Amino acid sequence: MNTCLAPCPVVFDLDGTLIDSAPDIHATVNAVLRLHRVPPLTLDQVRSFIGGGVDLLWRRVIAATGMSVDAHRDLVASFMTRYHDASALTRLYPNVTEALGVLADRGHPLAICTNKPLGPTKAILGHFGIVGMFATIIGGDSLPQKKPDPAPLRAAFAGLGSDPQAGLYVGDSEFDAECAVNTDVPFLLYTRGYRKTPIEQMRHSANFDDYAHLPALIDQRAPVG
């Protein structure tokens, strides 16, 4: 096991990793469905659709509800007008703020790489007062590519002035695990997020279920600086 001899860059996913946003996304999806007189989806259904960005979310909603695929663009537009300020039901996972503070105090450069659009990403980070902790924020519309394509994660590390192999990626989902493999970066799996695959079937360097444990885990697992 390597020990981090110098502060290494750490990039985080957002939904299901730092924040539990499923209740707000669920409420916003159902608000749009009500406009079209479509029966609401359950929280578990919508949670299972999260991770691939808004376009994929709505492709899955359309498939689940039997709506016309031709309505996709209008549904996404209607969703986005409500999504930017959807924060009332979203919560940080326990000990996230404290863990980020410890990492920042130890000199670790921090970034976000998410498939959530950039506007709502910055809005929710601002809502929780942590947007300033991240030197670089890559959203789902920052580049033409989305995770699991490696381009967004590479851009996040580039924004920190680092090579991906010198850092760590922290996420919760299959999209994150595959993106880490595609980018050749060590992956730390937060196990209380939105993954659907058993932990043992996901490629990762280590896993954790409490952010109170993350700083020590990073010191133990991080590549030598």
From TrEMBL:
<feature type="binding site">
    <location>
        <position position="172"/>
    </location>
    <ligand>
        <name>Mg(2+)</name>
    </ligand>
</feature>
<keyword id="KW-0460">Magnesium</keyword>
<dbReference type="InterPro" id="IPR006439">
    <property type="entry name" value="HAD-SF_hydro_IA"/>
</dbReference>
<dbReference type="Pfam" id="PF13419">
    <property type="entry name" value="HAD_2"/>
</dbReference>
<dbReference type="InterPro" id="IPR037512">
    <property type="entry name" value="PGPase_prok"/>
</dbReference>
<feature type="active site" description="Nucleophile">
    <location>
        <position position="13"/>
    </location>
</feature>
<feature type="binding site">
    <location>
        <position position="15"/>
    </location>
    <ligand>
        <name>Mg(2+)</name>
    </ligand>
</feature>
<dbReference type="InterPro" id="IPR050155">
    <property type="entry name" value="HAD-like_hydrolase_sf"/>
</dbReference>
<dbReference type="InterPro" id="IPR041492">
    <property type="entry name" value="HAD_2"/>
</dbReference>
<protein>
    <recommendedName>
        <fullName>Phosphoglycolate phosphatase</fullName>
        <ecNumber>3.1.3.18</ecNumber>
    </recommendedName>
</protein>
<dbReference type="GO" id="GO:0046872">
    <property type="term" value="F:metal ion binding"/>
</dbReference>
<dbReference type="GO" id="GO:0008967">
    <property type="term" value="F:phosphoglycolate phosphatase activity"/>
</dbReference>
<dbReference type="InterPro" id="IPR036412">
    <property type="entry name" value="HAD-like_sf"/>
</dbReference>
<dbReference type="GO" id="GO:0005975">
    <property type="term" value="P:carbohydrate metabolic process"/>
</dbReference>
<dbReference type="GO" id="GO:0046295">
    <property type="term" value="P:glycolate biosynthetic process"/>
</dbReference>
<comment type="function">
    <text>Specifically catalyzes the dephosphorylation of 2-phosphoglycolate. Is involved in the dissimilation of the intracellular 2-phosphoglycolate formed during the DNA repair of 3'-phosphoglycolate ends, a major class of DNA lesions induced by oxidative stress.</text>
</comment>
<keyword id="KW-0119">Carbohydrate metabolism</keyword>
<comment type="similarity">
    <text>Belongs to the HAD-like hydrolase superfamily. CbbY/CbbZ/Gph/YieH family.</text>
</comment>
<keyword id="KW-0479">Metal-binding</keyword>
<dbReference type="GO" id="GO:0005829">
    <property type="term" value="C:cytosol"/>
</dbReference>
<feature type="binding site">
    <location>
        <position position="13"/>
    </location>
    <ligand>
        <name>Mg(2+)</name>
    </ligand>
</feature>
<comment type="pathway">
    <text>Organic acid metabolism; glycolate biosynthesis; glycolate from 2-phosphoglycolate: step 1/1.</text>
</comment>
<dbReference type="InterPro" id="IPR023198">
    <property type="entry name" value="PGP-like_dom2"/>
</dbReference>
<dbReference type="InterPro" id="IPR023214">
    <property type="entry name" value="HAD_sf"/>
</dbReference>
<dbReference type="GO" id="GO:0006281">
    <property type="term" value="P:DNA repair"/>
</dbReference>
<keyword id="KW-0378">Hydrolase</keyword>
